[in-house]
Design a protein that fits this description.
4 copies of one chain form a homotetramer. The first copy, chain A, is an alpha/beta fold. Chain A has a single domain, classed as Ribokinase (UDP-N-acetylmuramoyl-L-alanine:D-glutamate ligase), CATH 3.40.1190. The first copy, chain A, is about 35% helix and about 25% strand. Chain A contains 10 helices and 13 strands. A 9-stranded mixed sheet of chain A has the order 5-4-1-8-9-10-11-12-13, with helices on both faces. In chain A, strands 3-2-6-7 form a 4-stranded mixed sheet. In chain A, helix 1 packs across helix 8, helix 8 packs antiparallel against helix 9 and helix 9 crosses helix 10. Chains A and D meet through strand 3, helix 2 and strand 6 of A and strand 3, helix 2 and strand 6 of D. Chains A, B, C, D: Its EC number is 2.7.1.92. Chains A, B, C, D: Catalyzes the phosphorylation of 5-dehydro-2-deoxy-D-gluconate (2-deoxy-5-keto-D-gluconate or DKG) to 6-phospho-5-dehydro-2-deoxy-D-gluconate (DKGP). Chains A, B, C, D: It comes from Paenibacillus baekrokdamisoli. Chains A, B, C, D: Keywords: ATP-binding, Kinase, Nucleotide-binding, Transferase.
Chain lengths: ~325, ~325, ~325, ~325
């Protein structure tokens, strides 16, 4: 059973709006960052990673965002272009903003952290007036990401993008991607997350992210069914709640819940798992696959990324994901 | 025909959220403010005026807002209480904010202006967490006012109040009350006004205010019918568009438009006309009157206020409005 | 003995830099402000009051400051002009700043307080580049006031004015006028007050104000002599430390201290006492009078102002001060 | 002839106050940064580099500054400690500030630029109250750097440090180090630079930096002698004005000017030249060498740094500088 349908009239498969930044990944890993002497530069940011993932999976993809008017900004646009992503709606900031940075620290495969530079970040300067209605109208799916809601004017740009998506029959996927440090308070966060979620067809997030959204609600046992049911009263068709190593569950408006099996991986770091999962899952949904098959594809995609040094640069092709699944099924890949 | 129904279960008729401030009205009028030496102090702010109006008209009324922790703030709460308005959800700011001020200049009955003090205003510090769900649940109607959307955290407080209203079957009236000086840009304004209007049952504003909300839309001739139709696709039942001295038109979802006759007045100043109109009109709607009769009552109410020195303090009782209408009908009151 | 000499070459006697604001004085007094319904508008701000005082005393006076581009700003310039004060260096703000306000509350002659509006105040927007070197060069004395040091760019404007004064042999008087609410911290305040005091010939302040300036120093018993001695190592010739109703003491570099007798007054409110004292005292110094006679003149001037409803508007002429002294000496005026 | 004398009673030779940041130097050089994929991390910031240089030259050195409470901050403190620099007055920020960053781009030895991250930088959060009077009192020389004057509260911390230095007979060296992007305006910059320069014994800067300081002065031909003379009226003993490849000139209060010969170098990049020059020169002055010999030592020190990949890490020891001078004199080192 499919829960969503996509227009065949639209020439673009996928457009994402939001954060474009730079990851600076520690080259010397399994140690504290204090002892890391060199870093490698990658394009980063959750919606950027998902867009790169979708493009690698063969989807016609575009991006709506804002970059700093500097070498980091130009590197980002170049990289998106080289990955076949349309960047005509990637606007250059002229106010002196900088590119957001994320220095990664990998003390061990399970002890990873990020040192963020988000002050005066260019991606949060995107305005509602800079969002291309035409680009969204031409797309089958719009992905929004919670971090873009953190500050004005980017917040308004996302709501305007949502308005265009609803107006033109574009399926909306909302990746919660909640980063507390860019927000003033949990209350502020919950208000805007809820306003955006009301307009979303697919909502993906961790249990903790949904808890934040329920700060004004009554769900004391953090019950997934209560959480999901709230959104089926609005536009949602699929709500995915992730429970870390206990796996993800997809809830649907018919009252069903769906799980997929997981795969082993030789983990280097955990960064990028959610983004590659999202790309793989949304790809499956767009192919008309079942939820279970789409979730399985997302999981395998995530395994590939967490076995690599980067996030964006490690996003797999369709063949790579299929191969990974086969290698797991045949016992060629086992947990480290 | 009535377009809205109100729950009989609810003990409060009317609750307003938003701006509470001080008007300092020139005592020596018909001259530039440079030459005004003394000012009289009144409670002001559009939703405060409307709430005072509703209470004078006999409605059980409450207010949700934030006041400065100073003499001006205490004067406001006292005045609301003395006018029978419930103030348990009027919160005192503890961050050092001040009371917003409006110095009025009355050069002539038709040449009036306002000098505003809105920096660090207490009313814009109301948070979403401070809004009482219970108070809204107990009310038949919630009035929101556009100025409260101008800044965080007051903006979030309004969206949270809207959420509670929808959840508890409370009719929402949205008085646009657009004041450009508190906003960053027209785009920002339009995004939040539109998000709030989507959830409103009654929308009242001037043609210019609706134009601002259509900055992203296509309505080149500023056609009222196109404007109203947009909102009937959401929650709206009544959209009132005011055309200054050409009168107001109420549009309804059945495609009809409604006008009321106007009354003569001996005008001292134009301030407060919109607020007293809103109070009179909403009062009529809550009595189950026709749109035409409600609009007529609003117009007469407005005439009384613009013939007086103050806004809030001049809000009439039911008897005063009926009397005014009779005096006009009998020719006792004529234009100045 | 005179401690300071003034150039005869200079055509202006006195120039002040800093705050220009509006006092809104309660008309109904001896009650809390909550119960005050009307207010009268006056020009206010410590350096403005002193400049008006000096002009009333017959000194050729000018002002360096910034006003809001509104009715309040224009009223201030008009009032200064009408009082014979040169305003060519009173600049109009174009950034949307407002005029600072001070609502006065007079509960009793000894229980007075002020409700200040200082957010986005025009006077604090004066820039160093707007200060006229030529105007200062033409003046015998420059008065600076501590509140103008509270924020950039006004802070820089004061230091630039001090630089011009030293360069052109202009005597500098520093009225401490410390208002905690405009400052970030006591440390910040002390640093800039000390930098300004190093360049000042006359320093006037209360014991509490000097305490604030000694936050980094060692003067545990708040000893006046230690306080004064510090400044004689820099440029100071006279340091006046005010001890409220215990009177003021003038310290001089020769190790002497000077006191003057005080006068009775029928006190309405305490506002403006310091400003009228400063005007009277500085006038005396500029006439070549002894410290004692100058202080006496300042005290009598202060008595006149605190017996009146306003500050600026009540500043006396030379004759009025002399008359007041005579009336006290003859027993015609006694304490209320 | 020596122009300055240093107290033998003091146990520390040198203390610097100000910026502590991270340089991220491109590993792949001679190309635009867009094409640089990896970066190496070093301690940076002009006063940090000079302090490291002084410590390498054998001087007992301490630092007064503020670091972010993160991995970058801890790396900085560790590095200073490993270089023998006392860090008891390096305070950890608790407000969520980040470490300033400088990404270097080396397109060619003569075409170098820096991409700065200075928003919310920890070093600018140092307060006046955090500066240790005792540490300064124990030091022979205090180095201040212009960038620390750019924002409050660091600006106040520098003025407080200057106050302690004057109080305790500590020689003050002022390295202008003007970075326009952290300042609001040239006027603001000039005011604070001039206030700090008034209290400095040694002032080092480029001709362009002195021009900025003269924005309110009259020196239309940018004449070095006029510039230097101004400061000899205050505390200055030595004023060094750098003219890029035309060399530096030291002016002294006796009216003399002093030049030193320059050395060849195989230049990799120009960053760090000024800092290593300052360290070498100040070292010489502290040894009681002539100005000429001190300047020569500074020049050789600079040559060593610009022939290396880093700034801080390349600071030479005394032996390395002497060897470099010998190698130049013997013709072993020639220009590239």
């Amino acid at each position: 059973m499919t829960y969503l349908s996509f227009s065949n009239q639209k020439v673009l498969d996928f457009v994402a709006i939001g954060r474009l930044c730079i990851d600076l990944n520690a080259n010397e890993i399994n140690r504290p960052m204090e002892e890391t002497m060199t870093f490698t530069k990658y394009v980063g940011g959750s919606p950027a990673n998902i867009a790169i993932g979708m493009s690698r999976l063969g989807q016609k993809t575009a991006f709506i965002g804002k970059i700093a008017n500097d070498q980091m900004g130009r590197f980002i646009t170049d990289y998106l272009n080289r990955n076949g992503i349309e960047t005509e709606n990637v606007v250059t900031d002229l106010s002196g903003a900088v590119t957001g940075l994320a220095f990664t620290e990998i003390k061990s495969p399970t002890d990873c952290s990020i040192l963020m530079y988000r002050d005066n970040a260019a991606d949060l300067k995107l305005t509602a007036g800079e969002v291309s209605e035409d680009l969204i109208a031409r797309s089958k799916m719009l992905l929004i990401s919670g971090t873009a809601l953190a500050k004005s004017p980017s917040r308004e740009a996302v709501f305007q993008a949502l308005h265009y998506a609803k107006k033109h029959g574009v399926v909306v996927a909302f990746d919660l991607d909640y980063r507390p440090y860019t927000w003033e308070s949990k209350e502020e966060t919950a208000v805007y997350y809820n306003l955006a979620a009301e307009k979303s067809d697919i909502i993906l997030g961790t249990r903790e992210e949904f808890d934040m959204m329920e700060v004004f609600d009554h769900n004391p046992e953090h019950n997934d069914s209560i959480t999901a049911a709230k959104w089926f009263d609005y536009a949602a068709k699929i709500v995915i709640i992730k429970h870390g190593k206990d796996g993800s569950i997809a809830y649907t408006g018919d009252g069903a819940s769906h799980r997929a099996k997981s795969f082993p991986a030789k983990v280097i770091k955990t960064f990028g798992a959610g983004d590659s999962y999202a790309a793989g899952f949304l790809y499956g949904i767009m192919q008309g696959w079942t939820l279970e098959k789409s979730m399985e594809f997302g999981s395998a995609s995530a395994c590939i990324v967490i076995s690599s040094h980067s996030c964006s640069d490690a996003m797999p092709t369709t063949n790579q994901v299929h191969e990974y699944i086969e290698d797991c099924n045949s016992g060629k890949i086992t947990a480290s």
